[in-house]
Design a protein that fits this description.
By secondary structure, this protein is mainly β. It contains 17 helices and 90 strands.
Length: 1640
Amino acid sequence: MTWGKTALFFLQLFWTVHHVTAIHRHDIYPYGMFYGDVTLQEGDDETSEVITLTKPMYFYEASFTILYVATNGIISTQDLPMEKQYVDDGFPTDFPVIAPFLADIDTSKGKGSIFYRQTESPTVLKRAEADVRRGFPDATFTPTHAFVATWENVSAYEELTRSSGPSNRINTFQVVLAYNEKDTYALFLYPEDGLQFFGTRPKESYNVEIELPARVGFTRGELSYFFFSRTEGPYYSVTSNEQSVKNLYQKGNIGEPGVWLFHVGNGYSFQNVVPAQHEAVLTKAPPVRDAVFPDEDYTDTDEDEYPIDPELEDPTTTEFLEPEQDSSLLERLNQEAPFGQSPLQPSVSGPGEFPHPDPRNLPPEDVTQPQRPLPKHAILQVYPNRVKDVPPHPSGGQVFSVEEKVNFDSGVIHYSTDNKETCERLQQQCSQNAHCTDYSTGFCCHCNSGFYGNGRHCLPNGAPHRVNGKVRGTVLVGGTAVQLDSIDLHAYIVVGDGRAYTAISEVPEPVGWALMPVAPIGGLFGWLFALELPNSLNGFSITGAEFTRRADVTFYPGNQRLSIVQTATGLDTQNYLNVDTHLQGSVPFIPPGATVQMEPFKDTYQYYPSLISSSSAREFTVVSAENGAETLTFQVKQNITYRDCSHGHRSGLETQELRMERIFVMYVKEERILRYAITNKIGPLGAGEPEPENVNPCYSGNHDCDTTALCVPGEGQLFSCQCATGYSGDGRNCYDVDECAEGLSSCGAHSHCVNLPGSHRCQCESGFEFGFDGRTCQDVDECRDQPCHAQALCSNGPGSFQCQCQPGYHGDGFQCHPQNGRPKTQCEQHRDSLQSGNGGVPPVGGFIPQCDEEGQYRSQQCHGSTGHCWCVDSRGQERAGTRTPPGTPRRNCDEPGRPKTQCEQHRDSLQSENGGVPLVGGFIPQCDEEGQYRSQQCHGSTGHCWCVDSRGQERAGTRTPPGTPRMNCDEPGRPKTQCEQHRDSLQSGNGGVPLVGGFIPQCDEEGQYRSQQCHGSTGHCWCVDSRGQERAGTRTPPGTPRRNCDEPGRPKTQCEQHRDSLQSGNGGVPLLGAFVPECDEEGQYRSQQCHGSTGHCWCVDSRGQERAGTRTPPGTPTINCDEPGRPKTQCEQHRDSLQSGNGGVPPVGAFIPQCDEEGQYRSQQCHGSTGHCWCVDSRGQERAGTRTPPGTPTINCDEPGRPKTQCEQHRDSLQSGNGGVPLVGGFIPQCDEEGQYRSQQCHGSTGHCWCVDSRGQERAGTRTPPGTLRRNCDVPVIVPPTQRPETVCERWRASLMQQYGGQPNSQHYLPQCDSSGEFNPVQCYGDSSYCWCVDRNGREVQGTRSHDAVKPACIPTVAPPTMRPLPRPDVTPPPAGTFLLYAQGQQIGVLPLNGTQMDKQRSSVLLALHGSIVVGIDYDCRERKVYWTDLAGRTINRASLEPGSESEIIINTALTSPEGLAVDVARRRLFWVDSTPDKIETANLDGSDRRVLFQKDLVNPRAIIVDSPTGTLYWTDWNREAPKIESSSVDGQNRRVLVQDGIGLPNALAYDSTTRQVCWADAGTKRLECISPNGTGRRVVHSNLNYPFSMVSFANHYYYTDWRRDGVIALSRDNQSTDEYLPDQRSHLYGITVAPPHCL
């Protein structure tokens, strides 16, 4: 093809792509760290630091000099509020916003990145000028500055549940602000496949799956109006629904889909945003191959004639590939520009132009080293640009301009730069064990001698290696989806012979069996560290520690498909590889207990620049009891993408052959561990198989070099062993060299050395960081980040800094307050008390807490001397598992902390037994970074080491004494045989030392019993079978010739096995007093057996089982056992089974049932040890109420028994908790002869006594301590007239004391009351130091909790009484008149109404209900009582509004989630919904006559109201699939659906008695609507609600509680006025009702 035709083809192709497809990801404006971008901190609601523009920018009519970038897809000209105030609301916002995609976005835990920068790059400005000219041809605009912000692969915020995993949908979009001294234009760019989600769910959607479409556009924000007022400013919205969001990448307004241009500001006159008008619509693009051209002339008809690989033509080829990766080759070349080389820049001269290449300008390396073309079917990813420690361009610094050059002959894109990257500038990108080499076009890294890798990552030759990572995803097994949620993967590789062991823990059983054939999971590590044959390289030598491997596995004949994505993210601080694995798809079902066998096979790998691929088919055999042996196959297609250095000489590899010679797979059900073991070698393709005798031991793996040594082949069969770099020894035995202890480290000043296996690393001291070279520790100028308070001065020093408040202020410099300012917080008191301990100077090396601007503890605390950092809660208490040592990445303390693991709990419980210091000589388990048990545990005092499983249990046979080589705990050991278990169990009976004189069996090399066993002490020898059982007639005494145990003998009979097992229980000698059966000459049981010690005799059958009724005591005639006997009864079997548990002798103290002459249970049974007696039925079951203690008359068991009373059931349930014996120290109620509670009860252990009512409930004021005169419980308790009633504190304390059985332990909380019955201002848990302050009502004062030995300084809120205190009621009387009652968690609030206006100044708390969650609420105007549902207590309660009233529980049974509640004043009935069992119930107002009205056709019932005059009931059901509002009569008749269309989340319901309509507030549609009871007259009252929960109608107003505002909102019926009340204590409000002074 001629040059002209080629150029024509490329130009036409370039034009076609720009006009028929959306903009590609590589065509958006350049971004990333290389371009000087700043990265926004990860999180759910993050905002950048203030960005000061180098030149002001006009937005609308105003000039701005600062910008902020936020996580949620917006840029603002002012600091942003919390996301809850805007992220779920529509346009306009009340602050200025530029919104390319306003939604609830989350980048925490690595879910995408956000980049931003301001630039004056000529390339960027020229492109922006051209884009503006395309959209506004008549505009004369030359930008001088630009601001670029890019959201890359960001996710939507999702609340994960057990049944749903992450959606993995990600978005990429960009905004470019180009401006000069007069105008500002905004470009929004949405690349192809850049939008995978189009909206987000509100965080407070109350389990309703509603999604708010993203908001795109511009808002000026609120503007000042008439001095003191504010009004809504102009705004412009691009989207309104989901389809309009999809249009963002399907359409455009400057002629290119995905590109949107707007004129957004002008310094002279500007009314509102003006969009460009050149519309573009996305059409399907023809298939295009990257850098591949047909040989024929290009014509318009050639578009559809590109060949497609038939194997990959199936559009589902990448069905399971992760969506966040782009498969574009151009993008890979762009993003993977090696070592900071600039990627391609799109042409700025127009979509149809492309610069012509000049072959004469290509460097020599580009001409002499052509690259292999990539395969057409390559599945590529965007390799993340991981250039570390590259500082951003300084303000006004130089920006490199890159010129594109295309080599059409080779089909490979090359680059040249005027300012190339060199080793001098960027050598820190190389490993510390590598050297850097400059080339004409750039530089490359190469590992030093003794190491292998790609130069960026190098490992010592021959040293074993470990891999750590997580496995996630969803696997379908036999139609069942199994979620894998971050389970652990660990691999151990013996590099010297290519053995790779992989273990995946906590694998659920169904998928554990099914994943056994998927050896490619562990096969990756085999390829990475395969044994290298001559002229070959393993994977790590090429890719290093950063790559992505994608494998598509298809199983036959079922066509199940599984996608495997494994991403390597570098080496950790221990120099181990990190690899995360994602599985998605289906696998064949494999029966539990089956085994999988895989034969050795070979796989051919194809090597390209930055890409390695292979395709192979394999067989495996499944052997199961159900199906026998089945042979199946699977096909594996895989691509490995990595960063290649194109500047230097390449390895020249094109193909290699990986040989997997031994494959072992298994699933251990008990440990839930999936294991793969594979031996791997890699060599040239087609090298042939040499004769085994000609293979050098280094290549066959038959050498004896240490696992940490390198086998060096010699001539023929000769070889030598050389310890790996970082190890010393003779090669057969190698030991780690501690470079730190021996002074061999390369660590410089202000750093310390950390030894690693085979290597070491340098770690900067606290206050220092690695410089640009990545090796030298330089002082951190902390003052540069302005850590001090605005009213403080910062002084930097070596490794530290100091903040000092300016004159007129006080504080630690981090917080400065004016003299005589607000009182100090707990944090400030804590900090100042430590600082003032030594004359106001902090103690040297002591920890000083850091407080924020509000005086609260900063969420992250660091020790200035040790460098350790950790997260704390609001009380300054350290959050478990968050501590990080110096030099390691710190935790994100704003993320919720994970709970402690079993290992951490185990470790901390041992450490906390002695004040946090481990017990001297005690064992403390070691946990890894994830909190899991380390596979090897060692006792610090004894020196013993052993391997443990995932639960921390010792693995048998792995314990090694001090001074001996330790076990490799990562290698899968074969399970112990029966002989080894037998031997080890005897040896471990006394701390690993065999019992003196005891018999220890001998096992051979395979772990089987040796055929001849001898007793080391007695000298007896005998032959045993494969189970270790003595073969009859083979025992020889000491000094006599031994038997030849290899001769076959008759097998032992059952009797002989029985006899010998008892005799060998103690070294071959029968246990004293134990029964040993007698066998005849044939080895059969003798028909009569006798116990040598007790003298009892009995007859047995052929199996040695006692024949019922044949046992005779000693001294009596024996039975003739040759006569047939009757079978044993149930009682005899029961009795004999207990008696035979210990050689025919009953266990001491155990109960043995008594049988009569017929073998039936005697009607009365007695326990021989405890003396208790009771009656039983014919099955031996105890009859209720018949048990009598020792020394009391027994029941006549032949009389019929009455059923147990409540007291007897209570007593017997406590007594039966421990085998019929009362718990030591526990309270057991006493019942009288009739089974009723005795009027006086006493605690047998504590000595307290009290009076009870007929239900066993303690009567208030009757408890007496031990040693005092008891009350007469048969007379009523008379309270003296002067005695005050119990206070809330005293009643609460008495209630909890009863709940704790009169004996609270140190962990129980009891309220502490003063002499007046008021709450002590300091409350603590038991006798611990876990204390806090409370107010007069016992409510905790926020921020006062403390674990310190010094209790918090709490100020009393109740003055000491000067006289006997007056009775203090539970109910605080509400004011006169009409008022609203609202539920707010643990309290019911009162909001008076002045007409229809809310009187906020007189609001108060009616009831403080500790530990409750009040949801539904209603008012009985006739008796002036309030009723409510308690979600936490699962109760329905009521209280009178009269002074001194107490709350009363009216229903406390069979409630699960009581929510809405309604009172029928006319009929004196109560109605409520229970949202878990989905039913509606009713009862009288006192809780009697309870019945279920409806329990069918309900899914999520919530609100319920009753119209008393008409006797009609209404309720809502927010069923996600079909929400509805229904009605019926109060007796459950005439049920019908009132509303079912046009509703989403009908939370709130009210009856407007004035208009006689039913009204509802919908949190899904955001509307308040009303309808007549007959279904007519539906109307919208208000259409812009926030998040209503409950509502009531009064006069011409609606009052509803709102979860977004956490307050009460008032709306007039004519929608002319609104008002809101926000309580001081901000939390969710639930139900609301109105309480008029009299019934309306």
